[in-house]
Every structure is written in C-alpha cells, then in structure tokens.
Design goal:
single chain, mainly alpha, elongated
C-alpha cells in the first residue's frame, strides 16, 4: 500500500515531535525536517541497486580461502 507524500510527511513530523518530548511551537521545524527526509528518500530511491531474490548469490563472490573449518582444542589426557 502506497502512502501519499502528504501523509508520509505528516506521520514523520508527528514522530519527530514525539521523539523530542512533544515540545510546543516546533511544528513548523518538524514539518520541514520531514519534508527534507521525504525528498532525500525519493532521490535515493532511483539510485538503489536492484534487489536479488534469496539464493541468487554468485559463487564467485564467496572466496573459499576466507572460510576456515572450525577446530576444537584437544584436551590433554592428564587432566
């Protein structure tokens, strides 16, 4: 479900207001901050890489030399 720009900004401004202890008279600041965050979110949306489905990791991206088998220390028989 998509949320309109106005609704997103309104909810974010409310969250900012609550997180600051519900100060009186700072609504315009919270609204402007929410607008900036929305604009940033929109501008980065186009630059995000495409999402891969689970299990589509390329084998070449996992270097076998970086994975080491786990070994346990041997307990001495004298104990």
């Amino acid at each position: 479900m998509q949320v309109s720009e106005q609704e997103w900004i309104s909810k974010r401004a409310y969250t900012l207001w609550e997180s600051e202890g519900r100060p009186h008279g700072r609504d315009a600041e919270h609204w402007e901050q929410a607008k900036k965050e929305f604009a940033l979110l929109q501008s980065t949306k186009a630059t995000k890489p495409a999402h891969r489905k689970k299990g589509e990791v390329k084998a070449a991206s996992i270097a076998p030399e970086t994975t080491k088998p786990r070994t346990r220390a041997k307990k001495s028989a004298a104990q």
